Amino acid sequence: xxxxEPGLHVGVPFPCTPPRMLRWLxxxxxxxxxxxxxxxxxVSEPYGHRPRQELYGTITEAFDADVEVLAFxxxxxxxxxxxxxxxxxxxxxxxLSDVQKAFELFRFIVVRKLKDQGLLDLLADSVDxxxxxxxxxxxxxxxxxxxxxxxxxLRHAQNLEKEIEVRTAELxxxxxxxKTLVEEIHDGYFVIQDQRIVFANRSFCRMHGAELEEILGKxxxxxxxxxxxxxxxxxxxxxxxxxxxGGQLEYTRLGCAPEKAATEIRSRVVxxxxxxxxxxxxxxxxxxxxxxxxxxxxxxxxxxxxLTASLSHEIRNPLSAIKMNLQILSRKLDLDGFDLRRLEIxxxxxxxxxxxxxxxxxxxxxxNIVTATVNLSDLVRGCVELLEPEAAEKDVAIVQRxxxxxAPAQLDAGKLEQAVxxxxxxxxxxxPNGGRVTVWTKSLGExxxxxxxxxxxxxxxxxxxxxxxxxxxxxxTSKTQGTGLGLSNVKRIVEAHSGEVTVRSRKGRGATxxxxxxxxx
Length: 521
Description:
Radius of gyration: 29 Å
Number of domains: 4
Strand content: 5-15%
Oligomer: single chain
CATH class of the largest domain: Alpha Beta
Order of helices and strands: HHHHHHHHEEHHEEEHHEHHEEHEEHEE
């Protein structure tokens, strides 16, 4: 067992892992290894055919090597394991991407268990060290593969003239194996010469949303976001000049959606007799970046929840007393004209403060979903009926289109009503006087992929392009009066049902919000 000491890191300066995290890993050692073995057999067919006893041995060694890196920053054990597993998996004909996925299971299992146990604070404190450990392991493994490949090419180049006849068949076989490995790698593999791409694998093409012929011969910087190009070029130039470039470089790539464009790259300069070339591997790290952002958001919302819980009692009771006394005075005092209007405005503003406080409390509380079989069309019709007075006040027509027999789904009717009412109110508010709101429900897909959809469309002014990425961010609002919590709570409710919420809008042409929910719980 390990005698953990905080801050005891030697060699590579990994982020310090909290002792509490190390003790947690030790307590859950056998559970993590057991789940790792079960999941790895589903990673790919080659893993599914490996003896289970062998998998227990390699995964136990991988776990212990990870913990040694996290606890002490020592890399010897991990290096030995990488050397061993590289040889073993290459001999067995494993694609490189399968082994990378197997390494990534450690982080996936640890993060899921911490979230399931409600240890988000421990996850937040440990995410940097977990990511650093896994990043080192995968990149070191990839570098090992890259080094082996370079050595093979050099051997072929040195012996080609002497053994041309003997080596022709072997070279062809080696090239086929190399291409298989490179093309199957999960990360983008590329070669640059004179700033232009001379080789790229399928993953590189897929990551950048282009065909191979659209990539070869083009400057690498053409596939880098403009605000990152100077930094990437400086790193490239420094590498060519022999200056050490520490660690990996992160940048935003082009050719994909902005939320999936975060990229990490590792490269080295080699000379194979045709001048200096840069060989590199780029990885899509958008999920990691999104997870880190999610952790930070959870920390912020935890603070908001603590603050709200502390203040809600102190605020709610005085508000209730003020509202009650104002209502009593409105009945007893003989007010008219502006005095009566002032009193009505005061009561309405107190009610608005109560609604804001209720939204804050909804955001702060953990979201517990209690499902039952629900007909979405009936639920939406009830919400529309409830809001007819608000629509009539603005002379807004609500047009409903519902599936005759929508697929039943396991939903929390109360929570989903909150989301639907929130979107309907927003649509009514966004519509001009005499405007129109269209509401619909329908079934999507079949069998295990069956889902249901709720949509609401208004004919208002639409949403500014710069506001769209922030619509579901807590406390973001473009309204003069509003907390910015309504759409945030809609997203929480939908995601708690394993669904998704999307928005489509063009300036001056209204906005459309879509909720898609799986039919199975």
